[in-house]
Amino acid sequence: MSASPSAGSSDHRSPPHIATLILLSGLSALAMNIFLPSLPRMAEYFQADYSVLQLSVSLYLGVNAFTQILIGPISDKVGRRPVILWGLVVFALATLGCIFAQSAWVFLVFRMAQSAVVVAMVISRASVRDRYDADQAASMIGYVTMGMAVVPMIGPAVGGVLDELFGWTANFWLLFVTALMAAALAYYDFGETKMKSGLTLGQQFREYPELLRSPRFWGYALACGLTSGSFFSYLGGAPFVGTVIFGMTPATLGFYFGAPAIGYVIGNFLSGRYSMRYGINRMVFWGCLVCLAGVLPNVLIMALGYGTPNTFFGLMVLIGLGNGMAIPNATSGALSVRPHLAATASGLSGAIMLGLGAVLSALAGSLLTPETGAEPLLWLMIITSTLSVGAIILVILRERQLGL
Q: Which residue segments constitute the domains of the chain, with CATH numbers given?
């Protein structure tokens, strides 16, 4: 295990402080969800169907997935620091493009370019694994991803208020300013944590089959992707449920929308506190079960006709709790199968997670109509949660077979 940098250390040769990693991961989460309460009004502004603007979620996640496949090998080759700095610059420029877009399709092009911000998530996790062993890395990743929990809790609420006060572009101006601040922070406090591999980029990409042939890597990656799939389904469908089914305003929806993040904060804390004590497999298993337990009563309540914003969004706290327990530990597991390929594994597992998220987000948006209510979204979440439990069980059985 490597030691943390001293409190006074901040030169470019020093590893990043944990607070820096939390803030960078928070920016990645903020870019994903701050504008979601504005989607109906953005559709009106661009004179486009809601389904077109909803693509700003699914396409963004899809490009994020592809980008992560590239980021991992590139950062293993050239180091973590240059990749994260260039990614933040591209994100800031793409955000300006979103602000000044004159049509929905131009907006979507720049929105996809915003996926460059995913470097903040991939590199933050990889830099943790560069410095700690598997169980402690899970604890540290749990703390790092708190940035991805706190921000979703307040991001939509802030976005909804900004929309009502200044219009939807205010959300993207906030992202632009935050991107500049994050780039400055990374410049001054993100020292290199990985020696250059010495391999060519082609050789780096040829390392992928080593991961793809590992059943344990697939088990961890799918457990992470499927349990988070419940949350991504929520991202794609909850704005519709809130505005159309429950008739909520953007500000009110923004307030309720962050409910899963409350649970995510608690789950991240539990990961940081108990992963070393109980091991990553148990934490993933329990997290997947909690996620499933949050959806089952919700679908029953809605089917019986007793669903309200309080019940629908309130039970989503358990989805966040399960995700907060499962994702850091499953991520650490995926990165630990082949430790010398930590960033490659981070990128590939993240690509699997966001690729599934893109599909599920788009599917959730397409299944919902005023006539169906929220049930299709909830059943989709039940299916993904159940499959996530199966995935981590396969990992546990595989490790018993290997005698690990």
A: 18-402 (1.20.1250.20)
